[in-house]
Amino acid sequence: MKNTVMKNKLALVLLLILPLNVLAKSAQIASPNGQIKLVVNDDDAQPSYQIAFNQQTIFAASQLGLEFKNAGSFSQGFHIKEVLSRNVDNQWQLPWGERLNVQDKHNEIAVTFVADGDSTNRYTVRFRVFDDGVGFRYEVPKQEGLADNVEITNELTQFALGNAEQVTAWWIPARGWNRYEYTYRTTSLAEIDRVHTPFTFKLKSGVHLSIHEAALVDYAAMTLDQRRPGLFKADLTPWSDGILVKIKTDFKTPWRTIQISKDAVGLLNSNLILNLNEPNKLGDVSWVEPGKYVGIWWGMHVGENTWGSGEKHGATTAEAKRYMDFAAKYGFSGVLVEGWNIGWDGEWFFNGDLFNFSKSFADFDIKAVTDYGKEKGVELIGHHETSGNVSNYREQMSDAYALYQKHGVTQVKTGYVADGGNIKRIDESGIVRKEWHDGQFMVAEYLHSVTEAAKHKISINTHEPVKATGLRRTYPNWISREGARGQEFNAWGNPPNPPEHTAILPFTRLLAGPMDFTPGIFDMGFNRLGDKSNRPQTTLAKQLALYVVLYSPIQMAADLPLNYVAKLDAFQFIIDVPTDWQESRAIAGEIGDFVVFARQERDSDDWYLGGLTDENTRDITVKLDFLAADKKYQAQIYRDGAKAEWKNNPYDMVIEQKNVTAENVLVLKLATSGGVAIRFKALN
Questions:
Q1: Which of 10, 211, 337, 366 is the most interior residue, by most CB within 10 Å?
Q2: Can 488 be counted among the known catalytic residues?
Q3: What is the pLDDT of residue 532?
Q4: Which fold has domain 13-275?
Q5: Which of 238, 188, 183 is CA-nearest to residue 502?
Q6: Single pTM value for the model
Q7: Residue range 5-15: average pLDDT?
Q8: How far apart are CA 236 and CA 436, in angstroms?
Q9: Sign of torsion, CA 366 371 373 378?
Q10: How far is CA 480 from CA 113, 148, 466, 475, 574, in A?
Q11: What pLDDT is recorded for position 586?
Q12: Going by CATH, does the domain composed of 494-684 fall within 3.20.20.70?
């Protein structure tokens, strides 16, 4: 891999200092293309902002401010004191990702508010306006009116829709027992109470919006509370004692983000979240390797194996070697092994106190497995399940990562299976506290695992995580995460993921960053108990399409090896498809209905296309103008057959080839919950 230290190019920064007197009421800024306009004002001594897009009011006056324990409210009674302005246009590179080059072009104002009267209390709200949306954050310096250590009891940030009529929203509930792992609901605003972000919705005008946050570090995650129709307020996830954030001045909050597009596809092509994160802090990260893996995982979900020891134990030395043989034969870089370490016996969901991350079951020899992998050119992918006891994990973390490093393990999947609000923390007095997965404590804990892993040149794939907020730019070894209902729900979900699920994820969860969904199930009849509802509600071709549509730099071929051997012709697409891209382009889609992505392989002329639909059949016309104009390509097409439909005939698939150029147009015929996957192999 190339040296991946982030490099800024062509930086153009203009700084204007515009001191305003206390009578000033507003400050204005527009996006570089002029389509988004933002106004900040202090009418009635109440800081607020509003946003228009193409002359349509998107957000009416929306309150700003913070409230502190023992210091009161930094909101009412504050006025604009000063505005700093700058314009930025530069380009930087991702060491791995959906694209190599990222353009950061935005206009910025930093608006400082001060309290009326003799008070020295002050804070700044920094706004950045891009062509694809807006980001803003609070910056609170040290000052006489605040202690060095403060406790935030309320963030007053509002998102007040200018018109709440006929809005369609796609959302999952916040502060629930299943964290982020809910099926998305498609409703009007009237049915919403508290939601997780990214929160995506469509206005009556057709404008699409998604509210989220970027650079979530040392702060509580933001959910949204609908106070009245169309008025959403930041609702931070609290500590066990009810305080929202405990922090030292001078501090900066995460960015509150609003992605804005005239259509659904525009949301998918946004770089807003990444651009609002800090550059790489790890230096040379050439040791962070994208790739594809197989694993001892699906067998446990479908009852073929167990995580715990016994006759059906999956994580044995012999079974790991068998998977490594398969991986080596078909070009996979890693084998995930779950259930190798002490602590899995019994009801492992409740075994957080028992897990030992350096001792293996008697039938698993980590040295023998990793030595065998070195001979085969395949790495062991490590696994740490905490069952929500993070104090137990932290005590062992450094030694556990050192053990993996000793044996050449460079990727680790971590798990935090526990009900929402039930993370076990032992405080400095030895008292057990229960925290949320997305509270400030866990935000820091997840990041600690990533920075600790980096010391050992290990990348982290977090399951049951806090949501992604673009920190993969700052810490590129945070290579992927879960954070939504993945493939495993198709084994036992009752109900499993509906056909529309993967047509919603790109417009919601994946706006935040990569997801380890674990696609590629080839056997739809694994449930031998007679319950045909628990299975992937897709065609085989749609399972292939997921490798292009649902982005992750690490992709799993999730099914059992024997099921791939039985369908080697379809398996060829999984063998061929890369996970690291030179460029990515969403070219068609409507939320919950269908989506089509085209992606160019990094350092290659080859392109790949993935398209999928919901429960409806669909014909989608796609121009191939994303291909290089001066080249010819062989299109290797994996598509639904004429009789394909997910319920009774999911395996009907046509594999064909044809030569194409950028001037051609393809009509994609998708079956019910169907898909298409295409490799465009550059010729000559």
A1: 337
A2: yes
A3: 65
A4: Beta-galactosidase; Chain A, domain 5 (2.70.98)
A5: 183
A6: 0.95
A7: 36
A8: 11
A9: positive
A10: 38, 35, 12, 11, 19
A11: 98
A12: yes
